[in-house]
Write a structure and sequence with these properties.
alpha+beta; 291 residues; disordered N terminus; 12-stranded antiparallel beta sheet; 6 helices
Amino acid sequence: MSSILFTNTDLRLKAPYRQAYRFTMASYTRVKEQTTENEFTRELELEYLPAASPEERAVYSIRAGEDRLLLDHQSSHLEYIVRAVSDVTREVHFYLHEPTGTLTLANWEDILDKWTIVKEQLWNDYKGTEIQQFTEGYDNRLRNKQALTASLLQYNLYGLFLNHINIQYAYTGRHTTQRDIFPVFGSAALPVQETRTIKNLPDSIRVDISGNIDEPRLDTTAVGHYAYHELSLSEQEQTDLLLQRYAGHYTLDEQTCIPQKALLQYNIAMGTVYQRKCRFHINPIESSHHV
């Protein structure tokens, strides 16, 4: 149950703004004795245009600028493919229905057109069933508008920038929501029960995030398939799935709720043979301003 302390803070934005950020994602994965470490940094511009009336929709636009990709030597051969695929969503627009906080993808058709061109180029540059299977997975996601929207709102893409939209209440307290982490085990998601604790500070709003595995929504069949087929574990080996860490925080401007900075870290382990650590954070690279 939420502890309610009413304040004068209205968390819905009322004026246009534009803000530039630097987004960094770092990951560490260990499968048995093999480890990989990758880091991705990208400059992004977030622009918001409020709705003219309650019946109309606001617009969030995210545009990618310069980026830097530091791949582990075992993954360096994938750099061209990773860049080609990520370029498809370098510019994303969302419609926001402010009364409900509902986001819908506004430029879905443009993204599909870009993907068609990228896929054809990848098929020309790489031959064989492996690239076809790889692109088939993206086909299934990109051609499903709901699945693509969910993917774009993951923390490793644009979720850190838009997570504050879900804060539709003008009071402090603790609130719980469902999230999924993709991908963890093949195409299976790791469902998380995420708790946000909102605190009003003298000149900002802080949102602390923590989470645990949402056991009722966990696809144990998919996790078991990964453990025994992909990791080649025997049934005698310990295969407990643990979310060892899921914690982070947001700092939001108290007047506009523009994200000032954000950080999230999570560690996942399966027995002693699988471990994955991820860290996502954003920092502003210039002051926000009205447009």
